[in-house]
Prior knowledge:
Elements: H1 4-12, E1 13-15, E2 23-26, E3 30-34, H2 35-47, E4 57-61, H3 72-87, E5 90-92, H4 99-106, E6 113-116, E7 130-133, H5 136-143, E8 148-151, E9 154-161, H6 170-181, E10 189-194, H7 203-212, E11 220-222, H8 227-235, E12 255-260, E13 267-269, E14 277-279, H9 280-283, E15 290-293, H10 301-311, E16 321-324, H11 329-338, H12 340-347, E17 350-351, E18 371-374, E19 390-393, H13 396-405, E20 432-433, E21 463-470, H14 477-480, H15 494-497, H16 509-515, E22 519-522, H17 535-542, E23 545-550, H18 555-563, E24 567-571, E25 585-588, E26 599-604, E27 609-614, H19 619-626, H20 630-636
Parallel strand pairs: 3-4, 3-6, 4-5, 6-7, 9-10, 9-12, 10-11, 15-16, 15-18, 16-17, 18-19, 21-22, 22-23, 23-24
Antiparallel strand pairs: 1-2, 2-8, 5-20, 13-14, 21-25, 24-27, 25-26, 26-27
Helix pairs in contact: 2-3, 2-5, 6-7, 10-12, 10-13
Amino acid sequence: xxxxxxxxxxxxxxxxxxxxxxxxxxxxxxxxxxxxxxxxxxxxxxxxxxxxxxxxxxxxxxxxxxxxxxxxxxxxxxxxxxxxxxxxxxxxxxxxxxxxxxxxxxxxxxxxxxxxxxxxxxxxxxxxxxxxxxxxxxxxxxxxxxxxxxxxxxxxxxxxxxxxxxxxxxxxxxxxxxxxxxxxxxxxxxxxxxxxxxxxxxxxxxxxxxxxxxxxxxxxxxxxxxxxxxxxxxxxxxxxxxxxxxxxxxxxxxxxxxxxxxxxxxxxxxxxxxxxxxxxxxxxxxxxxxxxxxxxxxxxxxxxxxxxxxxxxxxxxxxxxxxxxxxxxxxxxxxxxxxxxxxxxxxxxxxxxxxxxxxxxxxxxxxxxxxxxxxxxxxxxxxxxxxxxxxxxxxxxxxxxxxxxxxxxxxxxxxxxxxxxxxxxxxxxxxxxxxxxxxxxxxxxxxxxxxxxxxxxxxxxxxxxxxxxxxxxxxxxxxxxxxxxxxxxxxxxxxxxxxxxxxxxxxxxxxxxxxxxxxxxxxxxxxxxxxxxxxxxxxxxxxxxxxxxxxxxxxxxxxxxxxxxxxxxxxxxxxxxxxxxxxxxxxxxxxxxxxxxxxxxxxxxxxxxxxxxxxxxxxxxxxxxxxxxxxxxxxxxx
Length: 638
Ligand code: MIC
Ligand code: SF4
């Protein structure tokens, strides 16, 4: 009677019931962090006074900040390596690969639960596990053995039939879903893949789909664990980790989407949103300046081999810069063995480190007004580092063919070999360091970039603040706390990081907040979509933001706001948004009233009117907010 999502959640359920929309708590088996969110997560773990992690497996990856321009990134790496060794955490060194690719290959296990301080953690759900992106503090709590609190999601069945044809890719499956459902269509949902078509997708292809389920706003996406999963695990020398898992034959779902893989066409997500999807044929002929192949979405062995088959014996168009970053060192080593790396280099590709790189704006920003085709998952405004650039998200096949022609091109009409060698099997864990057997002897290194955690004060009974910024729908965490080579090195230094908040929306936002002793943010639908970075709550908290009044919130950001003691409020009447202006004086009256009723009143003193607002918060969420955030809460209740 259970679908696969319910089965795994049921196995891990600590509190609550399997009823969509109700609050639940689940046991977490595995955690992952990456360096850009990891430093905060581990500082929070230390602040909780945890000696050794309580999970079955916890891994700390370094893949985001690997440029090391200045001492800051290297300070972070040294802290992460030593803190991992001391507290029972595996450490994947910089250069070993992108967290989600390495986790999928080396650690993901059917039937287990994983939370990671990165929104693309659901990549590992391709393996038939429940893998969820969360804020760093929630990951720290999981490492401390505290169950993960979430809302029991609705489970949507995505029934796949048919088989992908020549030139088609798993990327086109998820772009089709984004076209149909939009970037907020998945909030509060899990997308569970079923149907005959599932057998025609490899684990790497499934991982592309579950990875980009994050762009739907979904809690996670999941594939069954079957013979294909078994073969993948055998090739990773991990047969013992396999078990068969699928939904019961008579399982029920909360919704259905049907996709015929044979009927798909190559697609692209146009600037500046992953759901601005068009068929490649509509864009054919558009001049291309840059092509970037890689990121946690499309950097596995199979994607790389398909690209090699397309590039074989050809050279990149003179006006195109092609950059390739394989997802893991294992993949890179296999590309060397099969000769694919030499194909890339002969074709004129520039080979980058096995890391996130251009996906998070760490180098390779396009030229002014440049057109860049990327096999990545996000094309939010400014993320590439060039505000005027047009970023299109495409499959590796579209990317490779377009790199050769110099214009957006359709791979279905391009002649290339579909098959490639799966051998040799290549396993390399030499850059994954085990935690110390003598943790008491390990000294945690804290260079000058590692600044102490900022503290929050308890919530007041009434909030009277100015609207310091008014924002439209779909504001991403890349708007709130931008990344990129200039800002990312300060993820462990919140004072400095806070000077970049909303830098592409409003200059000197930090100074406006300081001059007004903090403030309230007013926003539209789906506020905080995109990444899991808790810095998008932490830096505003540091600037004195006490509440965000939005039409709706993205899941992870809502949780992060609670964790850092910021009140997330929604209009009862969405039209009220139109009557509020920047610098209006708002009073949130009787915050504690939310314990008795989900609806309270906000008065706009400037406009002389008042609004009904609601909060989707449990009693524990409210306790956390009233005490000034989860860290204060944990400290006060230890
Ligand atoms: C992203 O893709 O936006 C990131 C960078 O991986 C983030 C995490 C972060 O901001 O550090 C994510 O997806 O959660
Ligand atoms: Fe890294 Fe990009 Fe994946 Fe985020 S989306 S984890 S930045 S590769």
